[in-house]
What we know:
The chain is α+β, with helices and mostly antiparallel strands. The chain has helices at about 5-10, 25-30, 45-55, 160-170, 185-195, 210-220; strands spanning about 75, 85-90, 100-105, 110-115, 125-130, 135-140.
Amino acid sequence: MKNLLQIAMGEIGVKEVSGPDANPQILKYARDCQINDYTSDEVAWCSLFINWVALKSGLERTKNLTARSWLNAGIPVINAEPGDIVVFWRESRESWKGHVGVFLGCSTDGTRIYCLGGNQGNQVSITAYTADQVLGYRRLRSVKETKFSKKTLKRGDTGKEVRALQDALKQLGFNSGTSDGIFGPKTERTLKDFQATSGSISINGIFDASTREFLVEVLKAKI
Length: 223
């Protein structure tokens, strides 16, 4: 399955249709998400778009058209990575209005946040927003059971199995950095932090059978 960022990138250019008609792709977002009362792309659809890409990538959703509803989804993160969700206030921090998109990065001086989202200039696009409008970042969790191979992983290993481990640790709030498929010192340290939450498995930084069983158990409890 493609990840959220890949799916969102594939929709760049989807644009509202002016007048009484609506872009059928935007209406499809609503149908796929079972938001049946959405019939016009004149209605704000940034949250609809994020619900759709989350659905297609097997991640949790808010099932809500309000942008700020995403502040109740996933786990809060401070050091956001590309593919995390970013929520902005709009018009006033004290209002209910906002905007939500996929975080891509920030400007060198940190004053602008680059965001991939729907309803940005009436289309799916990449746009920069001011950093002082950020309400928070969220990392969405998988709604499906994560399956791992039975391979033991340790520092120095590489590949998709390592990437799956890194993604799973981040879904639980253990920041192993970018999921690059490289089992380096940061992944080892983060895995030890996770192992220490068990109280019964070895804190050795090795993804062995007992650690794998414990990780699957914890992930199941979060679904």
